[in-house]
Amino acid sequence: MSGERPRPAEATERDMDRKILELFRSRSGGVVSGEALSTLLGVSRTAVWKHIKNLKNLGYRIESVPSRGYRLVASPDILIPAEVSAGISVRRIGTHVVCFRETVSTNTVASHLAAEGAAEGTVVLADAQTGGKGRLGRRWESPPGVNVYCSIILRPPISPLHSPQLTLLSAVATAEAIERTSGLVPAIKWPNDILVNGFKVAGMLNELSAETERVEYLVLGIGVNINMERDQFPGDLRYPASSLALEAGRTVERIPFVRALLESLDRLYDEYLLKGFSPVRDAWLARSAVMGRRVKVDGGAGILAGTVEGIDEIGALLVRTAGGSLERVLAGDVSLEG
Amino acid sequence: MSGERPRPAEATERDMDRKILELFRSRSGGVVSGEALSTLLGVSRTAVWKHIKNLKNLGYRIESVPSRGYRLVASPDILIPAEVSAGISVRRIGTHVVCFRETVSTNTVASHLAAEGAAEGTVVLADAQTGGKGRLGRRWESPPGVNVYCSIILRPPISPLHSPQLTLLSAVATAEAIERTSGLVPAIKWPNDILVNGFKVAGMLNELSAETERVEYLVLGIGVNINMERDQFPGDLRYPASSLALEAGRTVERIPFVRALLESLDRLYDEYLLKGFSPVRDAWLARSAVMGRRVKVDGGAGILAGTVEGIDEIGALLVRTAGGSLERVLAGDVSLEG
């Protein structure tokens, strides 16, 4: 297979950075002596100094405290595994995190990792994407430093026909994370958009590898416009788009957002494996922008109009037409009426 | 990506073999002089002689006719692209054929080729499989020289939810090829078994790579027991199995079978792209072993009993229960009653 591959170079170096950050965070007052760091990490004082310098370069504010050591004053909002994983409480999703400063597409990387056998719950993040993918071959704007581009590998024991259930699950988790970290009230637009105040702030693009009756792996791709500025949106977007910061009127930190997202995903997925689709469906319907509303659906072959009555077990939208028949919509663009 | 990969080495050599066979077949009486072969192929008389020797090693019976040249007396029943493609009439499926004497699994090879961008219609064949795959991780018995193990790459412009339609299409094509080459009357057992006289003679294992709303590629895997002897079946088979030869009481040639299979697939797929699922559904229902019959379905979570009324657009079996409700069955093992 050709194409982009992750380069987990300097894994032990990164591991050392993570351990140093953990030590800072475990101390009240946050001061750790160079000697303690050297002893606890089993490296020389010079090596400790090099790692401190490296962390400062990454944006950490670390002060020297005369005759006492070092103190961590502030952490930057950069996507590195040490920060994403710090203190996160998950069973499966986020136990292994890979971060890129830039990659073609986190979904592409995650698909390659999954094909090579990466464990369920592996998360791929990037600060920027050079070939971010949207629905149906469209582009997903992926400038550096402001948004979240995240892909998660799942291996659910289900038929591929049920895989849209996980798309709905990822939409619910994203909506929860937006609510918890920004205070905004998101709505889910079938099948995979997240709206705030009617503007699209997040989208899902999931990839599937399966045999006829069982999924080999799913990659949940989640793109969220966090701190994107108005002039960073292209003029030709299909839907009116916005970012959490624009809607909330304040900067939203990315690391807490990613942690909230992974925790929601993990909890919902755990519940899904235990209890099936029902809880996800209920949560989805509760946050749905279309439930009970009159809609028009452009399914490519024609336009269907009616009132949304729910979704079925394969994620199809159930639409009651004026004639009284209940239609199952498997794919299409939905617009609200009235 | 690790694992098995095709080695299309000696492509030009094989191409030369194919051209020589075509020349033999284009001549009435089948005699071609060494000089004519040399001139038409643009190679030396020594090279012609080497290729004739090579074809003899492959099992072709080629006679020297004194002062006239060579004559092709008989072709062996071996799976090589030159034989599979000879005189085949297809639009898409079978325009590119790759054959292996032995491989792990033709589905695995085809999936790798598809991921690397192989064209729609590419066909992978093997004389033997060392890791032949059946449904749900089961093994597919794949001894050398007697059966057909075939995988086809498709790139239909459909939603992954509709991909079971292609499983049904491959079952119809396999049933047609069995009928045309053996005279037997096959029946299709939902979702993907082919029965003759109640014995399973063929199975389908399809693999899918997709985004939420569109298929990237499908691999149709088709295994057919052609000339397998009774003592070649393992004792612990899940279903009673047989081969075309055992049921027909005579040897069935593999090359004509593969050609018939690819031609049926090609014709049905062409019709599918033009007219949608309806013709496939009608053909499937006409050959179905379960249509109108009382069945029990073991879907893992429980047993459902009722009468089969058809299949819907995502390939679900429609079963009318004694209580009168119409149930949609997405996965499970079906057994006939009464």
Outline:
Chains A, B: Keywords: ATP-binding, Biotin, DNA-binding, Ligase, Nucleotide-binding, Repressor, Transcription, Transcription regulation. By secondary structure, chain A is an alpha+beta fold. The first copy, chain A, has helices at residues 11-26, 34-41, 45-57, 81-85, 106-115, 164-182, 244-248, 254-275, 278-287, and strands at residues 31-32, 61-65, 69-74, 96-100, 122-126, 148-154, 187-189, 193-196, 199-204, 207-211, 215-224, 294-298, 303-311, 317-320, 326-329, 333-336.
Feature tags:
homodimer; 338 residues; alpha+beta; Arc Repressor Mutant, subunit A; BirA Bifunctional Protein, domain 2; SH3 type barrels; 3 domains; eight-stranded mixed beta sheet; five-stranded antiparallel beta sheet; 9 helices; 16 strands; 25% strand; elongated; disordered N terminus
The helical percent of chain A reads: 25-40%
| Largest sheet entry of chain A | 8 strands, mixed
Largest interface: A-B, 33 and 33 residues
The name of the CATH architecture of the largest domain in chain A is 2-Layer Sandwich
User: Looking at the structure, what is the overall shape of chain A?
Assistant: elongated
CATH topology of the largest domain in chain A: BirA Bifunctional Protein, domain 2
- Total discrete domains of chain A: 3
User: Could you give me the name of the CATH homologous superfamily of the largest domain in chain A?
Assistant: Bira Bifunctional Protein, Domain 2
Task: Describe the protein.
Two copies of one chain form a homodimer. Chain A is built from nine helices and 16 strands. Chain A has 338 residues and is an alpha+beta fold. The first copy, chain A, folds into three domains: 11-74, Winged helix-like DNA-binding domain superfamily/Winged helix DNA-binding domain (Arc Repressor Mutant, subunit A, Orthogonal Bundle), CATH 1.10.10; 81-287, Bira Bifunctional Protein, Domain 2 (BirA Bifunctional Protein, domain 2, 2-Layer Sandwich), CATH 3.30.930.10; 294-336, SH3 type barrels, CATH 2.30.30. In chain A, the strands form three sheets. In chain A, strands 4, 5, 6, 7, 8, 9, 10 and 11 form an eight-stranded mixed sheet that branches. Chain A has a five-stranded antiparallel sheet with strand order 15-14-13-12-16, with no helix packed on it. The first copy, chain A, has a three-stranded antiparallel sheet with strand order 1-3-2. In chain A, strand 7 and strand 8 form a beta hairpin. In chain A, helix 6 crosses helix 9 (278-287). The longest helix of chain A has 22 residues, at 254-275. Chain A starts with 10 loop residues before the first helix and ends with a strand. Mean pLDDT of chain A is 88; it is low at 1-11. Strand 10 (207-211) of chain A pairs antiparallel with strand 10 of chain B, so a sheet runs across the interface.
